[in-house]
Structures are given as C-alpha cells and as structure tokens.
Design a protein that fits this description.
There is one protein chain. By secondary structure, the protein is α+β, with helices and mostly antiparallel strands. It has 14 helices and 22 strands.
Length: 480
C-alpha cells in the first residue's frame, strides 16, 4: 500500500513518544500514521440483515473483513479496476449501507454495551450522521434520538443521511451543545458526546490534519470539551450512560476531560470499563478502563472512547435564558387523523404506535411519541418525518416518508436502467405500466420514491437536491 505524505509536527511526535503505552512501538505508530486508511462500511440493519446484504453483494467480489466491535461493520477492499464510487452503488443510494470509518463505530458499541436499552438518546454533535444512524439501527427505529448539530451547514447533510437510511425516530436541533444541561436536565437515558477535537487521529485520511497543531490549541479545545461534558452530564438522568469520544490522541482532550468530570462530581460519576467490549479491546484499554486506540493497534483511525454512568442526581444548572418561541404544530386527531392514516395505508405507507400525527398548516408530520415531553423546552429544527401535504384532491406524500415507511403493497419494480433514470431525476417509460395511478417504485425490493402515472409514463418525484450525475450502478451490469 502506498505511503501518505503525512505532516507530523516534532512536538506532536515527542508528546506521542512520551505517552505511548510500553507495549506499543513508537516506530509502528509513525508507520501506521503514514499508511492510507482502510475503507469501511456499516450495514444498515433497519433495511437489510447482514446475512442478506452479504449475499446481495457477493457478485461484486468485494473483500469484506468484519470489524471486531461492530457486527454490522466491515473493512472493504475492491478490485482496482472497479472505479465506481461506493456512494454511487445501488446499495448505498437505497440506504442499505453507510460509509463509516471503523473507529467511529466504537462509541455506539460502547453506548449499547452490556445490554443497555435506552429509550431517549441524545447525540450532541451529530453531523454528518454516521453515529446517529448507527444508534437508530441499534434502537430499531423505536424510542427517540435528539440529534444536535451546531454547524448550520451540516444540519442539511445530517438530515439527508437520516432520510436515506429510512430513519423516523430522530428530532434535529441546531444549538451549541453547552445549552442542553440547563435546557433539558435529566432528560436522557443515554448520551453520546463525540466531542469536537484537534483530530490527531485522522491523519491517515487527511494528511494535513495537523498543519495547525499546537499543544496550546489542544488545551483550549479541552476547555470547551469540559464545558460540553458537564452540560451533557446534567442532561443525563441518574442511572443513565454517557459515552465521551474523540478522534484525537492526546491526554488533555481525552482522559483528562473525563477525570475532570469525576473530580467535579466524585459521588455521581462511575467509569464503566471497556476492556470486555470486544475480544481484543484490552489491547487499547487504559488503567481507567477507557479505550485509547492508537492507529497501529487495529489498523484504523486513532480514537478515544470512555463510558460513564451517572449514579445519582447532581445540583441543577441555572435555567436557560433563551426563548423557545411558539410551537407551530398541533396533534392531528379524530376523523382527520383516521382519514390521513387510511389514505397513507392505501398508498403503501404504514407506521407503528411509536409515531403520532401532527399538523402545521397544510403539512402532516409523524413525530416519535418519546420526544413529546421535550416540546416547548428547546427549539427543534425538525422532528420525525414529513408525511404529506394536504391539497384539495387529497394528500401529496413526501419522499422521506415513502423511503422510511413504505411496505410491500402498492409497489412497482423498476429495471436496472429505469432505476438509474430515476436517480437522475428523469421520468420512467415502462413497457407495461402499473394498474394504479400512484405507486411506490422499487429497485431490487427497496423503495426509491413515489411515482404518478401520467399516460404511458411514470412521473418522477425524486427530490431535485438528491438527483445524481455521473456514472451510477448500471454503468456495469452489477447483477452479473
């Protein structure tokens, strides 16, 4: 494998040499940093089982090596002549897998360790959505996830990934993560704080990641991380689990942040050791029971993961000063709710008791029931999924609802070529059209969207912002 031209500052190397555990070689560490990163994917079990996925992709001759800490995760090697981007494969477009670095699967594995079954989870720094979608899969789309992202530009990407994966139990917020301890005290069973960090572990993916590195900058970042973990700890209910993680390697941003929290609340913070998380976890475990993953240990990105339990309540923070504003939705009930549900079922869209109908003007939404106690306490960017727009002839079903909730009724299967045309935003002209005027079009058994029959064509409703250019999965006949 070719070497990366990775920039490693001398002071950084001196710091790593000093803190590297005695059983690890410094030369191996430097060599690992110089190697390009292995690619990895995670099967989206909300849509397909691991076994069915492996069977489905077996004709492609991908070499898939299991990731030890995630049953759905695999390192992937492909033939050098296979130049089709992974993101352009049919399986990715229909949400059957997520391209995710293997190390970043660790925090969610820790969150659900030892049979933990949280009902209300917060992902404090969620974009682009790899961990949120992994959490949703572990929760089987039940309960609810508050996925927060401070960067406005990244909220849109977060929503797109949630939608593609068929997830409907997420509420999105756009705040500085330091507000939640005051705004939502003791509201969550589990919290993931994958904290913004100096990124020392990502040099294999980004050779210039450490161009602006300095020990002083790391200490400044650690100060923010302490404020974030303190806020998250206040938002956690007693008995709940907090996972703190970073993709960096220095102690200031990792162990020291967790030890600081323990010092603040010595009777309320319990470190839950991760040495048994998977078979070789002890190779990366620290004396405190955290996982400090140097890149040579598992041949992946550098990473840090700590799991904590809140053993008792702590004094609350002052109440927040911001105004939430009026909530523009009202529950949809009675005849209107029944009428919408019957019409949706007829269109092939079904949902369970975990979701409830709400309305705003002409829009009908489905909110996860478990989020309702938080309404009015923070301002949401969006909750659940938009089901439909009401118009004088009935309902206009929304793409995200079709992707997440379509069943096997009222479907029309597209060919390879037709599916490619669909993703390019073009109308479909099947040889023999469907019998009904509105159908869920599918490819290889998975919904692509809703199409309306107009004469001999199927009118494409694929959202314009998702339309793809370039070579797609049918460039080579991938069913061969």
């Amino acid at each position: 494998m070719a070497q990366n031209s990775v920039f490693l500052p001398d002071q950084f190397l001196a710091q790593m040499r000093e803190m590297l555990p005695s059983h690890l070689s410094f030369d191996d560490f430097v060599a690992a940093c110089q190697r390009p990163l292995r690619r990895s994917i995670r099967v989206n079990t909300l849509k397909i089982s691991v076994e069915a996925f492996l069977e489905r992709v077996s004709p492609y001759h991908w070499q898939l090596t299991p990731v030890p800490w995630c049953e759905e995760g695999f390192w992937i090697e492909r033939d050098s002549e296979d130049d089709l981007p992974l993101g352009s494969t049919a399986e990715h477009l229909s949400g059957l897998f997520y391209i995710q670095e293997a190390s970043s699967m660790l925090p969610v594995a820790a969150l659900f360790a030892e049979g933990n079954t949280p009902e209300r989870v917060m992902d404090v720094a969620a974009a682009p959505g790899s961990k949120t979608t992994q959490i949703a899969a572990r929760m089987e789309n039940r309960g609810t996830i508050l996925a927060n992202e401070f960067s406005a530009s990244r909220v849109k990407v977060l929503h797109a990934n949630i939608s593609r994966c068929g997830i409907h139990n997420v509420a999105l917020t756009h705040f500085d993560g330091r507000v939640f301890g005051a705004a939502l005290p003791e509201a969550f069973d589990a919290i993931l704080l994958d904290a913004p960090c100096s990124g020392e572990g990502v040099v294999r993916k980004d050779p210039d990641a450490l161009k602006n590195w300095s020990a002083e900058s790391n200490r400044e970042i650690a100060a923010t991380q302490r404020e974030l973990i303190d806020s998250a700890f206040h938002a956690l209910r007693p008995g709940g689990t907090l996972v703190y993680s970073t993709c960096t390697l220095n102690r200031d941003e990792n162990e020291e942040v967790c030890l600081w929290l323990k010092k603040q609340y010595p009777d309320a913070v319990e470190f839950l050791p991760l040495g048994d998380l998977f078979s070789s976890a002890n190779d990366a475990v620290t004396p405190e029971g955290f996982l400090h993953v140097f890149p040579q240990i598992f041949d992946c990105e550098g990473f840090f993961v700590a799991r904590l339990r809140k053993t008792r309540a702590i004094p609350p923070l002052p109440a927040p000063t911001f105004k939430v504003g009026n909530f523009p939705f009202t529950p949809l009930k009675g005849r209107d709710a029944t009428q919408a549900e019957v019409a949706a079922n007829k269109a092939g869209i079904v949902w369970n008791e975990n979701l409830r109908l709400w309305q705003r003007d002409k829009e009908i939404w489905l909110f996860p029931v478990n989020i309702e106690p938080l309404i009015g306490k923070v301002r949401f960017s969006r909750i659940g999924i938009r089901l439909a727009e009401v118009h004088n002839k009935g309902y206009r079903w929304q793409h995200e609802a079709v992707i997440a909730l379509a069943d096997n009724e009222n479907t029309f299967a597209l060919t390879h070529q037709e599916a490619e045309e669909w993703y390019r935003g073009r109308d479909i002209y099947p040889e023999k059209g469907p019998s009904r005027d509105e159908v869920v079009v599918t490819y290889q058994g998975y919904p692509l969207g809703l199409a309306k029959k107009v004469g001999s064509r199927l009118k494409n409703s694929y959202p314009r912002e998702l339309v793809r250019d370039g070579r797609l999965f049918t460039g080579n006949d991938r069913s061969a």
